[in-house]
Write a structure and sequence with these properties.
Elements: H1 15-27, H2 33-36, E1 40-45, H3 57-70, E2 74-79, H4 92-109, E3 114-119, H5 124-135, E4 139-143, E5 150-152, E6 155-157, H6 161-171, H7 177-184, H8 199-209, H9 225-244, H10 249-252, H11 255-267, H12 273-284, H13 291-300, H14 315-320, H15 323-330, H16 347-352, E7 377-379, E8 388-390, E9 401-409, H17 412-418, E10 431-434, H18 455-459, E11 466-469, E12 481-483, E13 503-507, E14 512-515, H19 519-528, H20 539-547
Parallel strand pairs: 1-2, 1-3, 3-4, 9-10, 10-11, 11-12
Antiparallel strand pairs: 5-6, 7-8, 8-12, 9-13, 13-14
The chain binds FE2/S2 (inorganic) cluster and magnesium ion.
Magnesium ion (MG) binds near residues 199 and 474.
Length: about 575
């Protein structure tokens, strides 16, 4: 039963006085007693001038408010921090846990019976779910939705797979200054999140598949009227959740729904970041993402969604092809259909809504997949005892089994300084290695794993090389790129021991990544390793450094994982 304004009354003397004070202050904003005497629905306001992806958040808040009021609830929007990929230094990942803490504590502190989480840009939805899961009240996600596509000289463009591709052409001298300026105005033509299958789209699809948002909510384009109607419906659903007293995220985040999310992640050719965020979300309810299980799912679940960067299309096309419900229908044999949803039913209800769109080619049938196996594989080997990830769906097939000479960069800065040096000794067969770019090392595990092809090779037409690191990579990128090497080099992982000239063997079929150097030599090198840089002494940097977990545990802070003791 909704507690409304009475929730958590403890602070000022007796409970009656605390409620009296709350009423006195909220009435200062013009509310009547009648308005206050109903389920209160919090709505996170993550609009920010620094977050163009959330540019439609104000309209969505209005739509959610309308839905809440039509169902007899009282909507209360409140701000939390907002994180945009391009405007968060040193990385958005560095701030994800801060946003999760902000969301958790504000949801807990303020009186609300349910919360609507409006977010979308890469780190925001995982942060919000992590926070809401720990706060423990009913929550429903409203993604801001993907941008519509851009056009340039007859070509369809999307942020930010084409950002990288076209910038690569600019670096190789094929696109001049004037044209690249024009292109910068066409890559992201509307508000909303990147419209390829990057991290934002990946998370929105996984969240819908976990029943944390309404059917279709992942793919409706941000500027469409339908997006607002979905917001309104979410507001209504939140009131129902408040009245029923659930489900809270913990009830939705089950072993079955996590498996469903992993299945969808493989089938959409999703962002490798999805795996890190899923591990962090699972950790908040005392569950684990098993990398072996994820790999096993990838061996039997094909890539069905034909979106960039693994395929050809964009999120609006996924929506017009039937969206996530249609995809779930195609994935039916691989899913746990009893998984619960925000609507109080099960995932089976989402599938029932699925619409057949004649002639569409974006969501492939199981009988004719885009790729026979899933988008990602988990590697093991003496270079990555805690695992590493490769998105082989977006890699060059001929490089998936490759042995080459290591060319090592000691940090992101070292790489930036030297990668384009005409004197750098490097050939297309070499393996580029980046270290000290993990959760603690960089800090914040930047998306530096997409190491640029050295300029002199790019100019010769080299488009891909094997690149390995303890960093992450944007979901919008492509290439033969091994990421999330765990443990990272900054905590003494074997990556710290690699030297330029060593041989490294990648074998994706066998799921191996090995440094071909004998153990005695590695032990000798281990004794010589110096920690990369002094630990920060104060502030958030210290908290982050001291408590961030490794990639396989989602890079959450160690004290935030797990459940509260009752
Ligand atoms: Fe916000 Fe890509 S920058 S989703
Ligand atoms: Mg991204």
């Amino acid at each position: 039963m909704a507690k409304g304004l009475r929730k958590g009354l403890t602070s000022y003397g007796d409970a009656g006085f605390s409620l009296f004070l709350r009423k006195a202050f909220i009435k200062a904003a013009g509310y009547s007693d009648d308005a206050l005497d109903r389920p209160i629905i919090g709505i996170t306001d993550t609009a920010s001038d620094f977050n163009p992806c959330h540019g439609n958040a104000p309209q969505l808040i209005e739509a959610v408010r309308r839905g809440v009021m039509l169902s007899g609830g009282l909507p209360m929007a409140f701000p939390t921090i907002s994180i945009h990929e391009s405007f968060a230094h040193p990385t958005s990942m560095y701030l994800r846990n801060l946003m999760a803490m902000d969301t958790e504590e504000m949801v807990r502190a303020q009186p609300m019976d349910a919360v609507v989480l409006i977010g979308g840009c890469d780190k925001t939805l995982p942060a919000q779910i992590m926070g809401a899961a720990s706060a423990g009240i009913p929550a429903i996600v409203v993604p801001v939705g993907p941008m519509v596509v851009g056009h340039h000289r007859g070509e369809v463009l999307g942020a930010c797979t084409d950002c990288r591709r076209l910038w690569g052409q600019h670096r190789a001298g094929k696109i001049d200054e004037a044209e690249i300026e024009v292109i910068s105005g066409r890559l992201a033509p509307s508000v909303g999140t990147c419209m390829v299958m990057g991290t934002a789209s990946t998370m929105a699809c996984m969240i819908e598949a976990m029943g944390l948002s309404l059917p279709y909510s992942a793919a409706i384009p941000a500027p469409h009227a339908e997006r607002l109607r979905s917001g309104e419906a979410s507001g209504r659903a939140a009131v129902e959740m408040a009245r029923r007293g659930g489900p809270a995220p913990k009830a939705l985040l089950t072993a079955g729904s996590l498996r469903n999310a992993m299945t969808v992640l493989q089938a959409i050719g999703g962002s490798t970041n999805g795996l890190v965020h899923l591990a962090a979300i699972a950790g908040r309810v005392g569950l684990k993402v098993d990398l072996e299980e994820f790999d096993e799912i990838g061996r039997r679940v094909p890539v069905l969604v034909d979106l960039k960067p693994s395929g050809d299309h964009y999120m609006e096309h996924l929506h017009h092809a039937g969206g996530v419900p249609r995809l779930l229908q195609e994935l039916e044999p691989h899913l746990d259909l009893d998984a619960p949803t925000v609507l109080g039913g099960t995932l089976a209800d989402y599938l029932k809504l699925a619409e057949e769109v004649p002639g569409q080619t974006v969501i492939r049938p199981r009988s004719a997949p885009l790729k026979e196996t899933g988008g990602m594989a988990v590697l093991r080997g003496n270079l990555c005892p805690g695992g590493a990830v490769i998105k082989h769906a977006a890699a060059t097939a001929s490089l998936l089994q490759h042995t080459g000479r290591a060319v090592v960069f000691d940090s992101v800065e070292d790489m930036t300084n030297r990668v384009d040096d005409p004197d750098l000794e490097v050939s297309a067969e070499d393996v580029l290695v980046l270290r000290n770019a993990g959760p603690k090392g960089a800090p914040g595990m930047p998306e530096a794993g997409y190491l640029p092809i050295p300029r002199k090779l790019a100019q010769q037409g080299v488009k891909d090389m094997v690149r390995i690191s303890d960093a992450r990579m944007s979901g919008t990128a492509f290439g033969t790129i091994v990421l999330h090497i765990t443990p990272e080099s900054a905590v003494g992982g074997p990556l710290a021991l690699v030297r330029t000239g060593d041989r490294i063997a990648l074998d994706v079929e066998r799921r191996r990544l090995d440094l071909l150097v004998d153990e005695a030599e590695l032990a000798r090198r281990a004794a010589e390793v110096v920690p990369p840089r002094p630990a920060p002494k104060r502030g958030y940097a210290k908290l982050f450094h001291d408590t961030v977990l490794q990639a396989d545990q989602g890079c959450d802070f160690d004290f935030l994982a797990g459940e509260d003791e009752e």
